Amino acid sequence: GAAKAVAKAYPVMKGKLTGMAFRVPTVDVSVVDLTCELETPTTYDEIKAEVKLASETYAKGIVGYTEDQVVSSDFIGETCSTVFDAGAGIMLTPTFVKLVSWYDNEWGYSNRLVEL
């Protein structure tokens, strides 16, 4: 699914990314639980700051950012392709991090098509 699509969109990621889907009874919202091994040590606060900056500048409208306590239904009708959940991730080591991002798998996609 999504992991294969990322590799097609970003060939540099081929062989470096995998994923799985949990089938849960939600209307149309999904969540990405991404675990990353980083080349450069960093902090979770630095990652959050970079994602927030992206959401307010060059990726505005594509990537969202929230520090609110949220659940899947909060993202029904979300126009961003994904919304980074700053409160849900965790830094496991300075080079190993788990990131969480939500998306409305119908509405966000439809908004990107309209932009084409």
UniProtKB/TrEMBL annotation:
<keyword id="KW-0560">Oxidoreductase</keyword>
<feature type="domain" description="Glyceraldehyde 3-phosphate dehydrogenase catalytic">
    <location>
        <begin position="1"/>
        <end position="103"/>
    </location>
</feature>
<dbReference type="InterPro" id="IPR020829">
    <property type="entry name" value="GlycerAld_3-P_DH_cat"/>
</dbReference>
<dbReference type="InterPro" id="IPR020831">
    <property type="entry name" value="GlycerAld/Erythrose_P_DH"/>
</dbReference>
<dbReference type="GO" id="GO:0006096">
    <property type="term" value="P:glycolytic process"/>
</dbReference>
<dbReference type="GO" id="GO:0005829">
    <property type="term" value="C:cytosol"/>
</dbReference>
<dbReference type="Pfam" id="PF02800">
    <property type="entry name" value="Gp_dh_C"/>
</dbReference>
<comment type="similarity">
    <text>Belongs to the glyceraldehyde-3-phosphate dehydrogenase family.</text>
</comment>
<dbReference type="GO" id="GO:0004365">
    <property type="term" value="F:glyceraldehyde-3-phosphate dehydrogenase (NAD+) (phosphorylating) activity"/>
</dbReference>
<protein>
    <recommendedName>
        <fullName>Glyceraldehyde 3-phosphate dehydrogenase catalytic domain-containing protein</fullName>
    </recommendedName>
</protein>
